[in-house]
Amino acid sequence: MSGIHKPVKRHPSKRIVIYNHKGGVGKTTLTINIAYALASLGKRVLLVDSDPQCNITSYLIDDITLDSLLDNSDGDDGETIWSSLKPIVEAEGGLKKIEPIKHGKRLFLLPGDVRLSEFEEALNDFWRECLQRRLRGFRGVTALSALVNQICENNDIDYVFFDCGPNIGPLNKAILLDCDHFIVPAACDQFSVRALKTLGHTLLDWIKDWETAASFAPDGIYLLPGKPKFLGYIPQRFRVYRGLPSSGYSPYFSRIEKSISSEIVSGFRKEDPGLASRSMRDLRIGEIKDLGQLANAGQSQGLPIWEVTEGTQDQRTAARELFETVANNIIRLTSLAEANVNA
User: Fold this and answer.
1) How remote is the C-alpha of 75 from its chain's centroid?
2) Beta bridge mates, 48
3) What structural domains and CATH numbers belong to the chain?
4) Most buried of 80, 106, 259, 269 (most Cβ within 10 A)?
5) Cβ contacts of residue 157 below 8 Å, gap of 6+?
6) 21 pLDDT band (50/70/90 cuts)?
7) Comparing C-alpha atoms, which of 328, 326, 325, 307 is closest to residue 316?
8) What is the rounded distance in angstroms from the CA atom of residue 104 to the CA atom of residue 85?
9) The pLDDT of residue 191 is above 90
10) Which of the four pLDDT bands, split at 50, 70 and 90, describes residue 220?
């Protein structure tokens, strides 16, 4: 039961989170459809539902199956993310081995659970215990990472995408520090632009906190990498007129770019140039306009938005092209980052 939390080599799958601590910027819709696009391009993708609201899980599986998963997650036959983490939280042993749910040929889901909030509460203590050089703290902070590592190994995963809630709590801290890259979604509105001003500072604080904590770690234990690189940003939820952002939204593009540059890129480069090494013109990895009824239909039908029954064929084709552009850019940029590391 405890074997999957022994020190192991980190699986080479690329771990990514689409993160903004502001709500309402479409993180879950982006995450799911980018994962679908990557799978359609031949990549094996693991979706980790690390939000206690279980949005991705409820998107991909029917209500009856979800209710059954949640009702039984506390027992010996539990199959959710909480089922695996529970022994760590309750100090009963190591991680419980669970299998992801396969969704199509190349998409895998680690189901969420409302009781993940209990793991988040425990993480507050785990973080403090790391600074006290206590092994329990490091085992707790790295528990989700170790679980993902084992699933990636067993299923030959290429990309991992975490879906997390819009907050700056201890769970999101552990997720960001486990990721190789993060992507910032930015809605074209004033609240989203304003949120960028604190996002960069928060992430840098987390990186520095882990650097301190890791210096107290006993030798030979499994640790988080702690250096998430800024892969890029995605403006979204804007309306278009004749193929271009309409006048009410177009000014936000420059404001978003300016805030990304000053609040994220600049700070990351001061901390470590490798955390944000690319030019600003290469950091916008896609644009997702307001998809309206297609996005709503995707949620209700549990499908990528280009396969729903709503809208016209032209609209669905255009939506697919948008997400495939983002997916191809992610493949290109993560491969480039990997090549630079190995050079």
Assistant:
1) 27
2) 110, 162
3) 3-342 (3.40.50.300)
4) 80
5) 11, 13, 44, 45, 46, 108, 151
6) confident
7) 307
8) 26
9) no
10) confident
Q: Please name the residue that has the structure tokens 């190994």.
A: 153
- Which has the closest alpha carbon to 52: 143, 135, 119, 98? 119
Distance from chain centroid for Cα 242: 33
DSSP string, 115-165: THHHHHHHHHHHHHHHTTT-HHHHHHHTHHHHHHHHHHHHHT-SEEEEE--
Give the strand order in the sheet containing 229-236. Answer: 101-103, 107-110, 45-49, 159-163, 14-18, 181-187, 229-236
Q: What is the pLDDT of residues 263-306, one digit of tens each?
A: 899 999 999 999 998 888 889 998 888 887 888 899 889 999 99
pTM for the model stands at 0.93
Confidence bin at 4 (pLDDT 50/70/90) = very low
Provide the token pair at 231.
Answer: 């892969």
**For 98-102, 110-114, 309-313, which range has the lowest pLDDT when averaged over its residues?**
309-313
Q: Give me the chain's average pLDDT, please.
A: 89
Asked if pLDDT for residue 189 goes beyond 60, the answer is yes
Of 50, 14, 3, the closest CA to residue 146 belongs to: 3
Residue in this structure with the two tokens 């089922």, named with its chain if needed: 83
> With left for phi above 0 and alpha for psi between -120 and 50, is residue 224 left, alpha or beta?
beta
CA count, 13 A, side-chain hemisphere, 155: 27
pLDDT at 196: 84
- Per residue, the 3-state secondary structure of 251-267, as one string, reads HHHHHHHHHHHHHHHHH
The token pair at 299 is: 């949620």
Encode burial over 305-338: b for 16+ CB neighbours within 10 A, e otherwise: bbebebbeeebbeebbebbbebbebbbebbeebe
Q: Which two tokens stand for residue 244?
A: 């271009």
Q: Where are the alpha helices (DSSP H) in the chain?
A: 27-40, 55-60, 63-72, 81-89, 116-130, 135-141, 143-155, 170-178, 190-214, 250-260, 266-271, 293-301, 313-342
Distance between CA atoms of 166 and 22, rounded to whole angstroms? 5
